[in-house]
Amino acid sequence: MENKVKIGVMSFAHMHAYSYASALNKLDFVDFVGIADEDGSRARKFAKEFNTKAFKSYEEMLASDIDAVVVCSENMNHRKHVVLAAQSEKHVLCEKPIAGNLHDAEAIIEVAKRSHIQLMTAFPCRYHPAFVSLKKSVKAGDLGDVLAIKGTNQGRCPGGWFTDLSLSGGGAIIDHTVHLMDLIRDMTGAEPTKVYAEIDNRMLSKDFDDTGILTVDFSNGMFVTIDSSWSRPNSYPTWGNVNMDVTGTIGTASMKMFQQKIDYYSDENKGFFYLYWGDDMDYEMVKSFATSIHKGKDVEVTGEDGLAALKVAMAAYESAKTGKVIDLAEY
Amino acid sequence: MLKVALVGAGGMGRVHAKAYSQMEEAELVAVCDIDPEAAKKCADEYKIPAYTDFGEMIGNVDVDVVDICTPTYAHLECVKAAAEAGKHVACEKPLARTVSQAKEAVQVCEDAGVKLFVAHVLRWFPEYRSIKEHVAAGAIGDAVEVRTTRSGSHPNSPDSWYCDYSKSGGVVLDLIVHDFDWLRWCFGNVKRVYARGLYESKIPITDYALVTLRFENGVIAHVEGGWARPSGFITSAEVAGTKGLLNYSNADSVPLVIDKKAVEEDRPSITIPENPANESPYYKELRHFINCLESGETPEVTPEDGIEAVRIAEAALKSISSGQSVVLG
Ligand SMILES: NC(=O)c1ccc[n+]([C@@H]2O[C@H](COP(=O)([O-])OP(=O)(O)OC[C@H]3O[C@@H](n4cnc5c(N)ncnc54)[C@H](O)[C@@H]3O)[C@@H](O)[C@H]2O)c1
Asked: Which residues does ligand 1 sit against, CB inside 6 Å?
């Protein structure tokens, strides 16, 4: 195909890089040009697996004629990498959360604007068909006015750099709050106004937060709770969940995003597992990003979306620390 | 055999009446309801005298225990009347509409030297008892985070007392007080409450609340209560701990479903999920109280438990109203 869009991956620190790379390889209008990583052996390993090039450095990759990059580094390194890409005028798909703190997030948005690049926050759940259908139904008024939403994003503790605060910026709350917050903003068009949270680290008793429940008020009057925790045991049959129960004036909806599964009991693997057979939302998200770049259109999920979701997570930490309800207008 | 008089012969009163009719240790001897039709219907079924006046009933019939199944706002006056007549009292949950009423109910029983049992029936639902026992046995290590759901369609017509939240307390007091008591039973006292709900929203025949509780032992609990579903009734409970997870939902726990075709015009097709058990939880809780009265043992639900469950609900309502968290003293 003529005029393929050329995309590279910056860092495989976040495991989502794996499925994003698979998606890049599947898209016929995309040329997956290669991988750069601070860890050169990691770059070489995955370059081999995905049949692409391992660049020696980010600079080498960014000096090539690529159009865009996918940034999958640790939260606290996003800023550094997005700045590099923006300086070379490469469009960016940045893994969520957009950054490990609000200051970095704002800087990321600023540099993208100044460099006139497209900046997309990776919120793949927006592309899951269960959510797409739910959003359509809510927008069509099937439930009447939305009064309340109860969400859970509970998973196993991912370990690794996710639990190193100097690299992650936070534990379960920063990791999990942002997905549901983004879905709810997108689905209702309303903005969060107030945040209260009970947060703790009693699950693993380490120096990072592993459990928390946020209560968030929204501009349209609805109230929302989000369970943002690493509360699934290692023996849980899958990594976790993204669930939402929506209560409206004339109806309710319940979404269990990863419920399309087969129950698998294995003597050999000693356990019970869910085998997911639903659609691949990561693929759809990468396709959307690549399409925007290919067609010269604006990306569907912005850096500001990433910031808005991150702000709620950060306000939750502040609320848990102070015991206060945080007013986002003043935060 | 203890003689029981029923006060309030509505939906719950009929459940209690049936339980006593199956019990060897007790006997239903009279029923009182201010609605003569309700009283008569129940009286006819169990072949006992019907009264519309409590004093008249107590004057005419030899009674050991008064079982109160009146609407929540009327609990206190009925508890008072029973205690002052020197009768032991079983009272439906919530003990009363407010904490101060609940305290007064406990005080009058204490003053009169009668026993008071609050029918927090969830403790006799085998699934909830099982979770509590497994948590206590350390099956999941230390409990860290708990989630419960109790959510159905609205219980009654718009003119029912349930829809007047000044009388029923809405879902927070009427419905999830069940979970508040169960959670306290499992995890001890609550330190802090934060809640959002539709209690003050005035949306007809709809109520919904999401309540976060922080317990003194560090446990965080999320409690969902709803009268907002078009159909169905969902209950679930999950306890996440340092070494495991317990998860129950009524939707996944139905051992029998009977599906009937629409064979005649006036009989539509119908699906009936059933959860058969040899003894109903209502039977078990009331028999427990009767047994305690006979043996002198203290019932598993103490009068203080009855007050504390109302206290959590009241704090949640206060939080909904003020928008702030409420610390329990
Ligand atoms: N444990 C449970 O699962 C459960 C379930 C439903 C209700 N409840 C509780 O049971 C109580 C009764 O609820 P219900 O659904 O049966 O209500 P209901 O409206 O069906 O019945 C109440 C009855 O009490 C009568 N009554 C009212 N005031 C009275 C008075 N002062 N003296 C005598 N009779 C009086 C009414 O005429 C009516 O017949 C409430 O406190 C409710 O919260 C508990």
From this structure: B 7-13, 32-35, 38, 69-72, 74, 78, 92-93, 119, 121, 174
